Amino acid sequence: MSPLIPIYDVPTARASILRRQPWDAFALPDSLLDANERFFGERIGPDEAVRRILADVRARGDGAIREWTARIDRVELDELRVPQATIDDALAQIDPVVADALHLAGTRIQAFHRRQPAISWIHNDGDGTVGQLVRPIERVGIYVPGGTAPLPSTLLMTAIPARVAGVPHIAIITPPQRETGLPHPVTLAAAAVAGVDALYIAGGAQAIAAFAFGTESIPAVDKICGPGNLFTTLAKRQLFGLVGIDGLPGPTETVVIADDSADPRLAAADLLAQAEHDILASAILLTPSRTLAEAVQTAVAAQLEELERAEIAAGALQRGSGIVVTASLAEAFDLANAYAPEHLCLLVENPWDHLESVRHAGGVFLGERSFEVLGDYVAGPSHVMPTGGTARFASPANVLDFVKLISVIGLNERALAKIGPAAVALAEAEGLTAHAAAVKKRLGRGE
């Protein structure tokens, strides 16, 4: 029997689990194509399916939302907006321990994001004034997944930074439960803790379309944020430019760098915590210790038997995950930086000594008491982080995602005399004579 999580040498890992491919280039399972054939009468791919749903919502609004929810989620929706009283009641009705945890998480998320700088500034010198104004985006729509499991933490991790940024209208949209036709009670409770302005019921591409185009019940927003499945991500990609998009998150991923000081049981637990998200999740251990690699491999197999989502975790561990034995810690960091993971966990002796070696990661977790699951819920920084190697250029969700900058230019006659001729020269070099004339007239060189 093959091991649950394989051990690779570096060349093999570079050609397999560490080799990036586009998030939408994975082989499509027959079950997905079969479902599309049932819904559309044709065996079409997800990109075309999303295109048709977007067009339908744009044309028919609420009617299309209800129809696609009935087809895909098998829920008949009446009202698309959840009453505020239902949201408030949910917080009072859930387990008090969970309610306290939501409040604790909310407090820490808010405190962290209040420390992020997003400031206006004005500079005045002899040439006049330049500066920038920071203004919040007026309407933000946040998608909160809820298909296989409720994700109230995602609601907190996106809505609270938006609130800290000063966004005046924050709307949530999330799928319904089949049993009740409402979002999960703990998601409703999280909405109460975050103080969102509206919560709507819809999932998938139709939810993204509702925020982008607006419907009779769901006002259009200026920017759409939040992770989702393949269909929501494809919808965001197709709508980019019509509405602001935070990013195109793919399957979640963790890289653990560990040396022989690491506890193999904890390293295995961290890999499994990531693998249980999704069969497409990636959980990778990089270590120069062959002994640790084999101990973690054994621990993963033992701990998997205790998990409720064991089948999902096993699939993820055997598909795009693995343990890589490196020549040194330095090589492990080189591989991690090239991979640019969403989460980078350092289970090494003196982890702070290695922080400067990290160049690309959505979040770095330092030591065995600062592990990724705490970041998922209560550490403070948003757990919505760049995936698919986009940590090379993208950042976790933060206050700056919810504001925009307005440049301020207020120059005087002295500045015109100093810089006007250069503007004329550049305009004429570009062949834009009207630009040049607008300067010359102010310099007294034109009629």
Summarize the structure in words.
There is one protein chain. The chain has a 6-stranded parallel beta sheet, sandwiched between helices. A 5-stranded parallel beta sheet has the order 6-5-4-7-8, sandwiched between helices. Helix 7 packs parallel to helix 8 (185-194). Helices cover 44% and strands 16% of the residues. The longest helix has 19 residues, at 96-114. It has helices spanning 10-14, 30-40, 46-60, 62-73, 84-93, 96-114, 152-165, 185-194, 204-213, 230-239, 264-275, 290-304, 310-319, 329-339, 372-377, 413-429, 433-443; strands at residues 7-9, 121-125, 128-136, 139-143, 169-174, 198-201, 223-225, 244-245, 253-258, 282-287, 322-325, 343-347, 363-366, 403-411. It is built from 17 helices and 14 strands. The mean pLDDT is 94. With 447 residues, it is of the alpha/beta class. The protein has 3 domains: 7-23 and 251-380, Nitrogenase molybdenum iron protein domain (Rossmann fold, 3-Layer(aba) Sandwich), CATH 3.40.50.1980; 27-117 and 135-249, Nitrogenase molybdenum iron protein domain (Rossmann fold); 412-443, no CATH class. Helix 10 links the parallel strand 7 (223-225) and strand 8.
